[in-house]
Amino acid sequence: MERHLEIMKQSLQLSETVVNGLIHTKTLLSEGKRPEAMQMLDDILVSYESVERSVTPVLAEMDMAEAEEVQGYFTNVQKGVNAVVTGLEAEKYEKVEEVLDSTLIPQFRKLNDDLKKAFQPYLT
Fold it and tell me: Cross-referenced InterPro entries, in alphabetical order (predicted)?
């Protein structure tokens, strides 16, 4: 696992950034700044995909139960992402705000917390 330490650290940092970006995206939408929110969301999705892609090999070497739990959060986050994208495509911005607030942001926070918990034994 030592060879994955830098990936773990960077993934946790990027995961925190994604959470903050999601919160900022919700703020932009509530302020009616849709183009800025769309650009921010594009950047967030790229970052999210980077986190998922980076930690997948790490999870493969971890305890099966922990890895499955983290993978479950990735699945939940992906469902939230899909709901946001669908709402944006339909230009239902209030629905997007609702999904961000009630689903995607909490799910990504849980994912972030679970990554911290899973990686903590290796990073301390």
Answer: DUF8042
